[in-house]
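Example 217.
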Amino acid sequence: MTTSLLSPAIEAYTALHTTPETSVLAALNRETNLKRGDAVMLSGHVQGAVLQMLSNMIAPHHILEIGTYTGYSAICLAQGLQPNGHLHTIEVDEELEDIAASYITEAGLRTAITQHIGAAADIIPTIDTSFDLVFIDADKSNYELYYDLVFPKVPIGGYIIADNVLYDGEVVLPAAAQSKNARAMIAFNEKVSADARVQHLLLAVRDGLMIVRKVAE
Ligand SMILES: C[S@@+](CC[C@H](N)C(=O)[O-])C[C@H]1O[C@@H](n2cnc3c(N)ncnc32)[C@H](O)[C@@H]1O
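Predicted structure in complex with S-adenosylmethionine:
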């Protein structure tokens, strides 16, 4: 996983010309980086702005996020919710619940976001809602499973967005140089590309976002 496939100069220029993080997101970003050795997992300023912009454009009633981590992307995605809309987010690591909860509250989103703790494959079938927008950002080996689980819950015209689909550029390396996660991303990208029920765009932002629009059941 990487923070960017762009040169540092272009990355800095891009960030400079993107709406700055709110004070809450900046504090969450800072605390995650101070306290966690795996802070590269956090979406961050520019990708967070992309997610917020997409959510604003889609204006969803219901969002599902798979992979809360410390709550950064959940807070970004929730900005686009319709009034009284709701975001469900799933995280397997219970130690992350409190930090995510505190920043969700600080962002004024406590009633708009439900945090689920547990394995996504177990929890997704228990949420009896359809989702205009799904963000997949958890264990790479299960992306295909998550896609299949959420697909019936997304209405025609709804969106599924998946993160890390370029996997630090490994997806274009020779097979012998690819990690297990990169091979999982290749399989996921091929599955989406072969799916006649969707339009799809691989957006080369940060570590790669696959944007899928459902056009048929
Ligand atoms: C890349 S991080 C998510 C980052 C977050 N979406 C953001 O942008 O700030 C992936 C998260 O998925 C969680 N995860 C891994 N396997 C999972 C599973 N089976 N079910 C739910 N969450 C899982 C990890 O614990 C980790 O916190």
